[in-house]
Amino acid sequence: MDFVGRIYEFFELLVTTRVYSVSFAATLAFAFAVLIFDLHRRGYRFNWPRRLIRSVGANVGFWWVNLLFAPIVFLTAGYVKQAYDTLGIPSIDEAVWSGIPWWLLVPFAAVCYDFADYWNHRILHHRWLWPIHAIHHSDPDLNVLTSYRIHFLESLVMTTSYILLLSWLGFPTDIMGYGAILLTLHNMYVHINVDWGHGPFKYVLASPRMHQWHHADLPEAYGKNLANVFPVFDLMFGTYYVPGPCKEPFGVHDVPQNDVVKLILYPFAEWSRQARAGLRTAFRSKSGTPDLPETEKPADPA
Question: Which residues touch 61 (CB under 8 Å, ≥6 apart)?
């Protein structure tokens, strides 16, 4: 299929697929419910700090920017799927899942999604991919829309991980779609800036408190709490960290806070800086010149 045909296919899916419409309606309703909740706890006074207003505005901006770049992600993911299919990896026949009730299959799909998310999240905290994920961590005021502060390249990394890790399962497309909706809603929930820890269920379902520690600008918390929904993955792989209520500041040093244009360009600027630093190190090593002390803050706090 040619480029124009793929673009047409993307917008046709966006308009006609029921999962997309349900996802949009559900996320909009959830965001509205959180807004009402926030107004209630503030005594129905709209007294948001200016920085929070700028944060929300930037997050809305990212929603529109990612919609603009969505066709690129869709097209690239299509080529990745084609390459994956050429490998001839055996997969489970979709018919195998037909006898399982949807109310069991959708939560199971959500668990599989979260397992993939744990690992793509983990690699996003490594040096060369951190400049992409730093955009999400740049928000100094967590709010329900922080979940949409995602660089389009991170969306591509996540989509690629789903293809590589989940394609062989052969889940029906609608089941995967509804599982993704559950994860999206929960991702919005954990970004609400409230100190809810889930008590005895804290190891069952990720809480806002748990995710606040993930965003905390504290060395002990870097690269921790990588599971978006199920803390069991962090417990299994040694990345769980919730010492109590999180009073630490959020955000990342040396990354723009709420400037959408600068944040979109940041990964490319940071990769350029890292490449120059690597070339300087290689040149000094080859010429016998001793390395100078590193004066810049590392790009990856994890």
Answer: 260
